[in-house]
Amino acid sequence: MVDFLGSVDWHTIFTPKISLAELFVRATLMYFVLLALMRIILKRQGGGIGTADVLVIVLLAEVSGNGFSAEYKSVVEGAVLIATILFWTYCIEWLAHRFVFIRGILHSPTLLLVENGKMLRKNMRAELVTVEELMAQLREKGIDDCSQVKRACMEADGMISVIKTTP
Length: 167
Prior knowledge:
The protein has helices spanning 10-14, 20-41, 51-68, 75-98, 100-106, 121-126, 131-140, and strands at 111-115, 118-119, 149-154, 160-164. By secondary structure, the protein is α+β, with helices and mostly antiparallel strands. A hairpin with a 5-residue loop joins strand 3 (149-154) and strand 4 (160-164).
């Protein structure tokens, strides 16, 4: 019979090999580097999930995945990294809620794509929205011609909102 409990190295599981302060600093630096890069590169987001949400999901998956494997140094290190990621996510959302300046940095402003039936191609180019993509979004809302649109805007979450012209 195999002794499963006797073969576990409990000391390695719960004893960090790296300073917890260093882990916190490393996680903090990586979080902000990734957040900045995603904010710069991914202005248009895929639907209702925001850049910060995607970042947290990816980071948590990576960090917690390492905590499950034997290659990772300790569970404590993984827990510190996860706590750091969640801590900064909460702090940034709290700051964005409290301060308009921070909100402006983190969230894209609403961008007008169609006004009074005319596509604003400069704005569409700025967000890399093609005519085909815009028309597909309009058709999903029951509109088959831009002349039926008073305003269409790309919202901060990447979704396109539409106000129809009144008959």
